[in-house]
Amino acid sequence: MDHATRPITRIEAACRVDPADNLLVSGSDAPDLLQRICASDVLRRGEALCHHLVFTDDKAGLIDAPLGIAVNGGIRLVAGPGRGTALRAWISKWIIVEDVQIGTRDDDAWRLGEADLADTGVHQATTDAGAAILDGDFDGPTVDSDRFEAMLLMAGRLQAGSFTASGPNPLELGWRSLIDFDKGCYIGQEVIARLDTYAKLRRGPGLAEFAGPQLAGSSLSCDGRRCGTSLGTLEIDGRHRGWVIVNLGITTGTTLDTDSETAGTLLQAPAVD
Question: CA-to-CA distance for 25 and 33, rounded, in angstroms?
Fold first, then answer.
């Protein structure tokens, strides 16, 4: 493996949060509304909210997994890169007569490659579904959102953003810990509960390299049988790499055939519990 494609272990840079991805959900009914439509426990009674929250559609396809932060006046949702507009539209769909307003924050905020790049003012969840967030000024190296996602990919970190925009199931992304299985009904709950309760989860996230670009949602096959789906690719140093959802049990090094005849190789197989 050459130097240009050697895996990154630390991301010594930050990316500015687009104001469209920096949402504030306010109003007296905001916490209860989010609790009803979110697969995670928004209320988290007895502890301050600073967790990634999973929002899914009725078929359990991921809308987004923003970092939820309790703030004065409401709940702040820092959406995955480029996912704020879709998340805002999804939440707005469920506001009927409730006292809920959704706006954006235009104050400076940064996605950190590593939480220890800043000493104070960092919002960091215990899960890795998204970056730690720094409010205010950042005096270290910065990159744009495309480069930041490329760096995450090279570091083997699957986070909410362009790679999850096609709506994969959060369980297949390995994000079971973000879902509250005791809270009761929410949008997508039946599908997620069925997959989990009856041990029907057959696929997980992997990292692959292809001979050419792959669209999110394109089919993958192994030995003539369908074995997964691409979540899209990025071109990094002339190589097309991206996340895939493939059958559990497939091993690193397996050839992944595509409809576009640009075969790939599985670089990182799904973890099997």
Answer: 10
What Cα–Cα distance (Å) separates residue 237 from each residue in 5, 113, 155, 167, 261?
7, 20, 15, 27, 21
% of the chain residues with pLDDT over 70: 95
CA dihedral 105, 111, 112, 118 (to 10 degrees): -10
Spell out the residues 6+ positions from residue 161 whose beta carbon is closer than 8 angstroms to its own. Answer: 80, 81, 82, 83, 149, 152
Q: Which amino acid is at 71?
A: V
Over residues 135-145, the mean pLDDT reads 94
Region 29-54 average pLDDT = 89
User: What is the third-level CATH fold of 202-268?
Assistant: Elongation Factor Tu (Ef-tu); domain 3 (2.40.30)
Tell me how far apart the alpha carbons of residues 128 and 134 are, in angstroms, rounded to a whole number: 15
- Whole-prediction pTM: 0.92
Count of positions (residues) in the chain: 273
Cα 169 to Cα 26, 35, 116, distances in angstroms: 28, 19, 31
**Rounded Cα–Cα distance for residues 258 and 92 (Å):** 37
Q: Same fold for the domain at 14-154 and the one at 202-268?
A: no
Domains of the chain by residue range: 14-154, 202-268
- The CATH class that applies to domain 14-154 reads alpha beta
- DSSP alpha helices (H): ranges in the chain? 30-37, 84-93, 145-154, 189-197
Q: Say how far apart CA 213 and CA 215 lie, in whole Å.
A: 7
Helix, strand or coil for residue 25? strand
CB-based contact 14:110 (threshold 8 Å): yes
Give tens-digit pLDDT for 102-119. Answer: 999 988 999 999 988 887
The answer to whether 54 and 178 have CB atoms below 8 angstroms apart is yes
